[in-house]
Specification:
globular, about 10% strand, Transposase_11, about 170 residues, Transposase
Amino acid sequence: MNSPGGFQTKWQIVAHTLTDQDAGDVSQVAPLLDQIGGLIGQFTADVAYDGKPTYDAVIDHSAAAAIVIPPRANAVEPSDDRPRGQRNRHIAAINSDGRMKWQVSNGYGKRSLVETAIGRYKSIIGRRLRARSLPGQQTESAIGCAVLNRMLACARPKAVRRKAATP
């Protein structure tokens, strides 16, 4: 089963979908974005999402969103005079400064928060679904996401930065 999910900086799972093994992750970008009520500021995904369908879905949902997807290793900038889109700017930046500098400057490392959430889901809720039918599994997955969100809301400490006491 594929279960890509959306994640917000407040550590809550804000979108989820569950499909059979024949559905590709890219086909779920628009349905995931449709679950998010407002506009998004940034969409971050791994290289598997690099392509026109993902960029189109994100722009349709939030035209001003920064799309942070590393281009494939063999990606080249178009040589014609078309306007330079976000993907082409990413390719140019990687070619001039290197992939690691591009990752740091675009906040690509935040993608690891999603991987952490998936790991948290698997360790707390479980790695296997118990329902046998796809609709039952989708319901089970939705309940698991709601449970995790509730647990985080109750247990996440609120850190407050304080000045160091002077003696």
